[in-house]
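ESCALATION

Customer reports they have been waiting on this structure for their group meeting. Please prioritize. Original submission:
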Amino acid sequence: MKITVCVKQVPATGEQRLDPVTGTVIREGVASILNPFDAYALEEAVRLKERFGGEITALSMGVPSAQETLRRALAVGADRAILLSGRAFAGADTLATAWALAKAIRKAGGADLVLCGRMATDGDTAQVGPMLAEFLGVPHAADVSEIEEIDDQGVVLTRMADDGYRREWLPLPALLTVVKEINVPRLPSVTGVLRGQRAEVAVWDAPDIGASPEETGQRGSRTRVVRTARPAKKAGCRMLSGFAALMEALETKVP
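Update from on-call: job pushed to the front of the queue and completed.
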């Protein structure tokens, strides 16, 4: 079984800064980590490999320093790593990102199962996974909390829904986005870290995946960041005495 895990390098929690002109996240000079949700997808891929065998490809798109994130993936059990990096990918929205990832997966030989984290902590859109499934032409399930069984035909899974949990079957190939309830990510061993540092990370530009400039980066994006701002911090306290005062305060907030 061929498994592809999509991972992303994101700013460390509390370290995000915004460009006052473009409104985008400033990544230069900021500590970066593996997107926490992607860590669960990576761990699940390794567990599936341990149970059913196969090969894991870790795939990312970003600046050259994202190679360190991919080396982390290699350290915990991925077999190979691919980074999409180059000026052609800069400024991509979720649609252009998903398109580039789909082209890369096809160039890499396809996948029986694609795993993604539910969302990235620097964007919180949860769009790339479902978009990627559409570009690949495969069924997908979001917010998967358990993978019970998998064989050549399909996968039995449990996913979170508005009304609780649902047990479903999907034919393969398929794409799943996972939530943190699915597992507890392992820490890389010393041997794994050394293996990750020695391993080669393939770096592909747009021509390597057969993508034209009109399909990637800002030119391939269908959305634009108009403005990004941090919410104003507001704090206040109002002391109420008695149930009647509480009801009166609540009623004034109801339109």
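Sent to customer with the following note: The radius of gyration is 21 Å.
Escalation resolved.
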